[in-house]
Amino acid sequence: MRTATYFFIFLNLSLAVFEEPAVYPLPFLVTSVVEVLCLLVFFGRLTHFAKVTHRNVFWKDTKNICIMIAILLSLTDLAVYGVLRIYNVRSIRWSRIVRPIFLINFAESRQIRRAFRSIRNTLPEITYVFLLFMFSLLMFSLMALKLFGERNLQTAEGLPYFRNYLEIVFDLYVLVTTANSPDVMMPAFDFSSWYALFFIAFVIVNTYIFMSLFLAVVYNNYKKHLKVMVGGLNCD
Questions:
Q1: Helix 62-86 and helix 28-51, axial crossing angle in degrees, nearest 10
Q2: Which range is the signal sequence, renumbered to this chain (predicted)?
Q3: 132-172 per-position pLDDT tens digit
């Protein structure tokens, strides 16, 4: 049962690859039949679980309620989408966002729920580090606007360089990953090599210090909450 449940959960999640807009598009009839089959399996698994569980326990478990609501929403969305498709009316399969609910809420997914809870409990504790990082990014972006905004510099493509604050924020945010390095600094470096000091300081503070601090906080808090879950201090 566990293997079958995981197989149909994986199959249900994989439908996004074949539904419009798709990487490998399949006819709507094929994907809809596969989805209905998966939903029937999920409903049968839930029914089986209800048969071996006390009624009060079953209906008090929010995981079972979430699965039933997800099945109902998926079937409703599939029916509405199919009818609109018959009349050539474009619509969106909004129920795709509920598909991960099946992965998290079935009884076989206890370890996944533990990991999910650990991530959820970790998020509030890394908020302060993230806010500090965003504050640093915004301050460096403001400095870049003051340094380069009035010098009429241009990129290699002939576009304005560091003249719009929001675009500067985005470029420097990408620079934290070093994905656009050193291209993002070359117009300023060509104007004056001393401007390289600004980007060196930015990379040291945000890439090497803040990213390391961010990783350490995430790892330590995630490990702490995962130990609590494994130790059984929180009920499943």
A1: 160
A2: 1-16
A3: 999 999 999 999 999 888 888 888 788 888 888 999 999 99
What is the count of structural domains for the chain? 2
Does residue 158 sit in the same domain as residue 80? no
At 228, is the pLDDT very low, low, confident or very high (cuts 50, 70, 90)?
confident
**Domain residues for 15?**
1-108
- Examine residue 26 and state whether it is found in any structural domain, yes or no: yes
Q: Is residue 227 part of a domain?
A: yes
C-alpha–C-alpha distance, residues 116 and 173, integer Å = 27
Name the DSSP letter for residue 53.
S
- Residue ranges of E strands in the chain: none
pTM, full prediction: 0.63
Return the half-sphere exposure (C-beta side, CA atoms, 13 A cut-off) of residue 25: 5
- SS3 of 149-164: CCCCCECCCCCECCCC
As a whole number of Å, the end-to-end CA separation of the chain is 20
Are 138 and 213 in a shared domain?
yes
**74-89 pLDDT per residue, tens:** 999 999 999 998 888 8
Specify whether 61 is located in the same domain as 151.
no
Residue 91 forms part of a structural domain = yes
Is the distance from CB of 221 to CB of 125 less than 8 angstroms? yes
